[in-house]
Input
Amino acid sequence: MIRRAFFSNKVQASLPLVCNMMLVSKRDITFSQVAEALETYGFTADRQRGSHVQFVKDTYLVTVPKHGERDLAPGTVAAIVRQAEAAGINRAGFKKDIIAGGR
Output
């Protein structure tokens, strides 16, 4: 049986998102931070269709939405990290580089 803690919406909205034991606030990562981190790991911006930029390294592809400097959703950042991890990038190091980039 799974037990779930229930919080009021006000409390839940103020709680930080814990992503693999690393504290990240809900909306503080932008396209430029992710792009800078990907380029550090050898990815290059290959093409753009609409508001999505695709970064390529060898045969691996990572798609990142580019909506100006609007913050990326936490689930989107998690998907980008998973795609980069498939290319052999260390997950924890990549997250730290994303957070450190652009600040």
The beta strands are 17-19, 22-24, 44-49, 52-57, 60-65.
